[in-house]
Design goal:
Blueprint lengths: L13 H6 L15 H20 L7 H14 L8 H19 L2 E3 L5 E3 L3 E10 L5 E9 L4 E3 L3 E5 L3 E11 L4 E10 L5 E12 L2 H37 L10 H7 L10
Parallel strand pairs: 2-9
Antiparallel strand pairs: 1-3, 3-7, 4-6, 4-8, 5-7, 8-9
Amino acid sequence: MPSAGVPWEIPATLTQALAAPVATTVEFRSRAQPDTDVTLVRQLLQREAELTAFSASISDPLFLTAPHRLDVLALLSTSWSEQPELWAEQVTASLALSGTVLNAVTVTTRGPINVAADKVDFPITLRNELSQPVTVRVQVVPSNGRLLVESDIEATIDANSAQTITVPVTAAVGNGEVALRVTMFSPTGVVVGQPAVIAVNVHADWEGIGAWVVASVAFLFFGFGIWRNIIRRRKERTERRNGKEPSVSPQPDALAIAAPLPAAGAND
């Protein structure tokens, strides 16, 4: 084994190293790292775990995990010990970049949105800014009982695109304001991106009120026609009893029938 020129190094084979006695003169000197450095390292490791969990939602997890793992290993190298300030800057930049990746899938729908029916398909738009398709499970939770959500919706969003999904909701009790909390999960149950809150104004009775108004107008219209017919017929009966002809405008056909026929031989 070639020597690296270090004074305390003695080249040896693996067999010689295993057979060598245990050294008793080795002294280890503890060296405390600054708390700020320890905090940054913990944040790096935590972010790596978050990216690994998030990667389950994309079609190729190594697209995210492999480059980030290499970045973390490079930042944990002892060669940075002589450049602590530059190391801190690089760690901060790595955390910012990975944070952008974690927030690349978002809910873009904003309120307020009006719901004026008992049952509607509520539209929600999802945005994916990654260059890989993302599969998420969308959960919608209302803030009160005015709206009921049937179930979660699974959606696959293409790379660098937006997709609108529809969530079936039912208006349950009265009118008022509801806040819908929309949360996306990966197939393994990890939260994707940041939950979004959509303000909704529920006017579920409007549809019933509109139908009642239409029915009332139709009833009044036909009722007025029936009332007119009843009044006219009563007037005709009264005129007959008094020996008068009903004051009804004769129709053209009636005039033709009532006209006297010419006398026989009148044209002779």
